[in-house]
Amino acid sequence: MEHTKQFTVFAVGEEWYGIDILHLSSIELLDGIRIVPNADPAIMGVVNIRGSLLPVVDLRYLLYQKKMEVTEACRLLVCAETLGSFVLAVNEASDIWEIDLASIEELSDAPYKKGISHVEGTLVTILDGAQLAKEIEHQVQKQ
What we know:
Elements: E1 4-12, E2 15-20, E3 24-29, E4 43-49, E5 52-58, H1 59-64, E6 75-79, E7 87-90, E8 92-100, E9 105-106, E10 113-119, E11 122-127, H2 129-141
Parallel strand pairs: 2-11, 5-7
Antiparallel strand pairs: 1-2, 1-8, 3-6, 4-5, 6-7, 9-10, 10-11
């Protein structure tokens, strides 16, 4: 039975989040985003990743309805095709952390949040990749 899992940990605003590494294919510099006219506020635009044009979702806007401030530390999390074809814009990407599954306290009332864990002195909210993908698909289809 699995006791730990690997998560990519990243910042959105002042908060730290984690997503199962199996849900991501790569982490890229925040560069080359093209604006899409009349797009939903959560959609920053589109970006070309290895020949595929993918929508870029402002994760801060999706979670808090506040636009992300773009800095040099910002990164693009390219989601694996199993979730769908999209990219998450985040304030900073940390590293891959091994998190004990028993340390994750479940959050029942949060739509895309599986739980919360205290890791290496940092509070990390674990995102449910499948639920997040459903919401993003809904946002993209509104376009």
